[in-house]
Amino acid sequence: xxxxxxxxxxxxxxxxxxxxxxxxxxxxxxxxxxxxxxxxxxxxxxxxxxxxxxxxxxxxxxxxxxxxxxxxxxxxxxxxxxxxxxxxxxxxxxxxxxxxxxxxxxxxxxxxxxxxxxxxxxxxxxxxxxxxxxxxxxxxxxxxxxxxxxxxxxxxxxxxxxxxxxxx
Length: 168
Hints:
Blueprint: E1 13-14, E2 24-28, E3 41-47, E4 50-53, E5 64-67, E6 84-89, E7 96-97, E8 100-101, E9 108-113, E10 126-128, H1 131-145, E11 148-152
Parallel strand pairs: 6-11
Antiparallel strand pairs: 1-5, 2-3, 2-5, 3-4, 6-9, 7-8, 9-10
């Protein structure tokens, strides 16, 4: 005779026991009176700012969780942050394009560099016109992640590439 018993659902666990490894969980977020349309259980993952939902990446405050059933969604790639905040100059003064003076739209980029020297792909690279704007981003990251800031000017061996001449 076939076994027709329905497997029991996992018992919810306190949210502080949920894995914070870039995977997904089913989190219970109590419904607020002004959001009665929302479902109390939602798919969540841990990110730099806490628990975020899978739909709009909005921050959520779950109180308990259960594992998601298989098949599991792809992990997000999140990992605890480590390394340094780098402000890298990427263009300089006096650049030309097609022989004409050109003011590059972005001169600086801000990114997280891992201890091995690679760029942290999970955290976005930001581009800025001025060093002051890039420093603003770095200051926010430093307050959030407590990382050191490194400013790297344009390397002296970087020269603008001129277009090849067309020979006719």
